[in-house]
Amino acid sequence: MAAELSSSINIKEPRWDQSTFMGRAKHFFTVTDPRNILLSNDQLEKARVIIHNYKQGIVTPGLTEDELWKAKYIFDSAFHPDTGEKMILIGRMSAQVPMNMTITGCMMTFYQTTPAVVFWQWINQSFNAIVNYTNRSGDAPITVNQLGTAYVSATTGAVFTALGLNALSKRISPLVGRFVPFAAVAAANCINIPLMRQRELKHGIPITDENDNRLGESTNAAQQAITQVVISRILMASPGMAIPPFLMNTLEKKAFLKRLPWMNAPIQVGLVGFCLVFATPLCCALFPQKSSMSVSRLEPELQEKIRASNPGVERVYFNKGL
Predict the structure, then answer these.
(1) What DSSP assignment string belongs to 155-186?
(2) What's the start-to-end Cα distance of the chain, in Å?
(3) Could you report the per-residue pLDDT of 14-39, keeping only the tens digit for each?
């Protein structure tokens, strides 16, 4: 008869060491696994119950350690780490690869006319708005007004960047024009993410000590978290938007694409998808999800509060969001 599973496994933390890039990469390859979006509500609820019970010290009979970790990652893929709410399907990290490969592939195929640029940049920013809202850090609510401002500003920024660079590229090189969608996406990320999370910049995000005891809210921590997310998002898009243009520039000169021009979009989508399968988890892994900073870098009043009530605390921790 198998021994009962220990109730002391720390499932609040990822299975792999998050102080190393390799540990974080293994974690995010699991979190961003596109197969997770195919899970039914019953499977998600079963995983939620297993994890909820385990945190209460109740071990499901017959549960193995591998099954526990599998349930944890299913739970993490669908439920917000701070609020515990079930996340919108297309806003989950497991939807990043299939959604982004389709949208990015189309942006890079249909980039030469103004209506196409406007349409696909709008689609992309609509998707980004959902992802940013779904994966916001902390338990900070976002108002409809804030959501609308961020969405309109990012879409406008992306469209104007794309149209401006499109006009410029016509006087330079057709190959340069293929990189216009990437420049637009990078510009939009720099606008969209800070605006979508503006409440965190105004009021701060929850910070804790290493034992998860809440110490307050910090705007400095929010700035660091949002900067890291912007960098990760831009780098995440880089391989899928930088490598295919060179390949497509060569392939479009081949006879088979001249005979079958409709294959252009599927090939672009496939190339982008291949890049994103690796780029998404690896770029998410660039910075620890449970980010940290020295107490000395916090706001002066917060430093005083922490040093008065928790004199031994030298570093604080916070969820940077995705």
Answers:
(1) HHHHHHHHHHHHHHHTTS-HHHHTTHHHHHHH
(2) 43
(3) 888 888 999 999 988 988 888 898 98
In the numeric block, which tokens belong to residue 185?
A: 């996406």
Whether pTM exceeds 0.85:
no
φ, ψ dihedrals at 300, nearest 5°: -50, -45
In a 13 Å sphere around the CA of 92, the CA atoms on its Cβ side amount to 26
Q: Note the pLDDT tens digit of each residue in 36-47.
A: 989 899 999 999
The C-alpha atoms of residue 64 and residue 255 are separated, in whole angstroms, by 55
Cα separation of 269 and 275, whole Å? Answer: 10
Tokens 């596109």, located at residue: 34
- Find the DSSP H helices in the chain: 21-31, 41-55, 65-78, 96-109, 114-134, 144-169, 174-177, 180-196, 198-203, 219-251, 255-259, 264-284, 300-309
CA angle 30, 43, 75 (to 5 degrees): 45
Residue 1, pLDDT above cutoff 50 = no
Nearest to 252 by CA among 240, 237, 268: 268
Q: What is the Cα–Cα distance from 205 to 27, expressed in whole angstroms? A: 23
Q: Are 117 and 111 in contact (CB under 8 A)?
A: yes
- Write the CA distances from 110 to 92, 122, 126, 166, 295, integer angstroms: 26, 13, 18, 12, 48
Q: What is the mean pLDDT of the segment spanning 69-90?
A: 86
